[in-house]
């Protein structure tokens, strides 16, 4: 038996690798003291004594009574005999307990079967996948939703999927809806397949004439189960791989896929109409696409708007009369990408727009919108901030805990004349996210570090919510750099108190929220956005502007709780610079009270129920520009 085999056996008997080595060393060299073992094996003396103590407990090493104590190994034969006996006794005991253990397992198994925990399963290979789809068809009660390529539809026909739908026992009550993509390349395949599709199959085509959109492939049974293809179809075709998908009954995931399907279905086209359009060359016109894009934008459907404009650019390649409009489309598209914080794509659009126009004024406007990322370090934490435009006056915009999405309309407007700065405070965006407390004082110091990195020029600071409190702390602690202050929709003290009755959040309710949010920050962030913006019509607004996709939920909750501890009312009378207080009806009493406490302030109230810088952007920008250029008296 080799040394390696003996070491493996000892490991199986419960010894660690190091213990096995020391045991074999003792067996080889006889009785030794701990110091001698340490010296010969070049191992720390403390570690050797811990190993020897463990080996004694396991009965494989013995010690003498002399001083210093010496150690010797128990014979390997005795170790084998002891372990054989132990295993035999263990087997006897396990045999006796078998019936009892099986009864216990049956009870545990029943409990798990009754649970509603979603399950995931990987399925690989066409045969297994289409057998699973056939099973899902048989179990469908209300509807089956499928997104597939034309190639995938042809494969479904080969495996008898459509025939199985036709033979469904409740086909008159069950809906089968299919979505696919259609282009010049696969129109003939679709025409061959079309007669084979039964009347109960409702097949439509997505309105995606550009190569920028790839459909996810999925099969959904009612809202109970979904099959999602993982492997890209291009890989399966080009490399010859087996299809791979995962199957799940997780309720949240299945409902998410249903939502994606319904959104795509909403903008889909009848397949026969699409085939006719492709064959006749009747693609959507550029004016129609732009009109659709403007409509989608008004409905806050930013991603859909981007899709329309990408289609416009595709069509322009073949329509020379629209070449002079290309820079305008690229300018608009850049603004849309900026709206969803995809600034690299926005910059790319602006640069392409500059390259395809001879109008110097248009070039200058797009050049000013290009985002320039800057990094400054404060106490070892890297902070990202962003600059747009140029000018003698600098406008700094800060909202919430740093997100710049709320300021897109202001960046676009004010970068034409001024230098505009937005920032990611620590914990947000592309700034560092160290552990610890996220307080207003810490944010104020971060703002100080960024301002010190700006050229010595006139600075106007615009703060919304947390940003407003940070602005108040900065101008009262570090006077001189900011010449004008704008406070938008914020409360100097959010929690109700006897001396400040205007706040709208009940203290007991907020304490309960704190307690639960600290335990589950993800839940807390979700509830925060719902608490401040409960109306259904704000759903897209919450998803686009209020949530914090780049900030860990624990940081959001920590910052929110610390923010609500701040009471800056005593500081308001110390503000000596011209100040503009902007509000909306829900915050009017709080903001009017602030206005009365600030010596050189001016108050204006918007009609919008929430953020005026977004929902009344034109008026907001006009009022702000008047304030920038005129002193408050």
Structure description:
The chain has four domains: 3-74, Winged helix-like DNA-binding domain superfamily/Winged helix DNA-binding domain (Arc Repressor Mutant, subunit A), CATH 1.10.10; 84-115; 120-280, Endonuclease, Chain A; 371-493 and 566-629, Alpha/Beta hydrolase fold, catalytic domain (Rossmann fold, 3-Layer(aba) Sandwich), CATH 3.40.50. Helix 3 packs across helix 4 (45-57) and helix 14 (286-298) packs antiparallel against helix 15. It is extended and about 95 Å long. The strands form three sheets. The chain has an eight-stranded mixed sheet with strand order 4-10-9-8-5-6-7-11, sandwiched between helices. It has 29 helices and 19 strands. By secondary structure, the protein is α/β, with parallel strands linked by helices. Residues 111-115, 209-213 and 494-503 have low confidence and may be disordered.
Summed up:
This protein has 29 helices and 19 strands. With 633 residues, it is an alpha/beta fold.
């Amino acid at each position: 038996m080799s040394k390696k085999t003996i070491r493996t056996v000892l490991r199986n008997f419960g010894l660690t690798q190091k213990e096995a080595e020391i045991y074999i060393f003792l067996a080889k060299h006889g009785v030794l003291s701990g110091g001698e073992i340490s010296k010969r094996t070049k191992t720390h003396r403390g570690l050797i004594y811990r190993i020897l103590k463990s080996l004694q407990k396991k009965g494989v090493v013995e010690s003498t009574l002399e001083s210093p104590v010496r150690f010797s190994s128990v014979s390997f034969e005795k170790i084998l005999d002891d372990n054989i006996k132990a295993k035999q006794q263990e087997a006897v005991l396990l045999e006796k307990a078998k019936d009892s253990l099986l009864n216990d397992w049956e009870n545990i198994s029943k409990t798990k079967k009754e649970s509603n925990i979603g399950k995931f399963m990987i399925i690989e290979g066409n045969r297994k996948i289409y057998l699973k789809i056939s099973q899902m068809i048989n179990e469908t009660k209300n509807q089956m939703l499928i997104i597939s390529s034309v190639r995938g539809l042809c494969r479904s026909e080969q495996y008898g999927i459509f025939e199985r739908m036709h033979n469904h026992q409740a086909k008159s009550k069950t809906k089968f809806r299919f979505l696919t993509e259609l282009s010049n390349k696969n129109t003939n395949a679709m025409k061959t397949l079309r007669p084979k599709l039964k009347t109960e199959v409702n097949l439509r085509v997505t309105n995606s004439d550009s190569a920028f959109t790839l459909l996810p492939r999925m099969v959904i049974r009612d809202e109970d189960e979904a099959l999602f293809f993982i492997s890209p179809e291009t890989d399966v075709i080009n490399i010859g791989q087996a299809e791979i998908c995962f199957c799940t009954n997780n309720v949240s995931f299945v409902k998410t896929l249903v939502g994606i399907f319904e959104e795509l279905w909403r903008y889909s086209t009848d397949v026969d109409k699409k085939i006719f359009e492709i064959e006749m060359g009747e693609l959507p016109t550029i004016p129609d696409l732009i009109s659709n894009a403007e409509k989608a934008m008004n409905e806050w459907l930013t991603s859909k708007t981007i899709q329309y404009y990408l289609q416009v650019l595709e069509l322009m390649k073949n329509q020379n009369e629209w070449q002079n409009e290309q820079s305008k489309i690229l300018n608009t598209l850049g603004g849309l990408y900026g709206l969803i914080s995809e600034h690299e794509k926005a910059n790319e659009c602006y640069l392409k727009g500059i390259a395809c126009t001879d109008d110097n004024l248009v070039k200058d406007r797009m050049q000013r919108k290009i985002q320039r990322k800057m990094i400054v370090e404060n106490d070892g934490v890297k902070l990202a901030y962003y600059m747009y435009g140029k000018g003698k006056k600098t406008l700094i915009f800060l909202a919430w805990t740093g997100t710049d999405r709320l300021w897109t309309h202001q960046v676009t407007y004010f970068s034409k004349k001024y230098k505009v700065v937005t920032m990611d405070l620590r914990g947000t965006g592309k700034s560092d996210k160290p552990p610890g407390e996220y307080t207003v004082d810490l944010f104020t110091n971060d703002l100080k570090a960024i301002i010190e990195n700006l050229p010595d020029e006139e600075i106007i600071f615009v703060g919304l919510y947390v940003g407003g409190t940070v602005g108040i702390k900065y101008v009262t602690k570090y006077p001189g750099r900011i010449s004008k202050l704008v406070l938008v929709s914020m409360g100097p003290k959010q929690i109700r108190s006897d001396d400040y009755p205007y706040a709208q959040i009940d203290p007991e309710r907020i304490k309960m929220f704190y307690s639960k949010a600290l335990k589950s920050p993800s839940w807390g962030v979700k509830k925060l956005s719902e608490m401040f913006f409960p109306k259904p019509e704000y759903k897209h607004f919450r998803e686009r502007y209020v949530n914090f996709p780049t900030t860990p939920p624990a940081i959001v909750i920590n910052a929110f709780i610390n923010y609500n501890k701040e009471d800056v009312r005593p500081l308001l009378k110390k503000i000596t610079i011209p100040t503009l207080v902007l509000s909306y009806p829900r915050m009017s009493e709080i903001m009017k009270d602030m206005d009365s406490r600030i010596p050189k302030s001016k108050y204006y109230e918007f009609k919008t129920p929430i953020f005026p810088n977004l929902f009344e952007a034109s008026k907001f920008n006009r009022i702000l520009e008047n304030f920038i250029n005129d002193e408050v008296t």
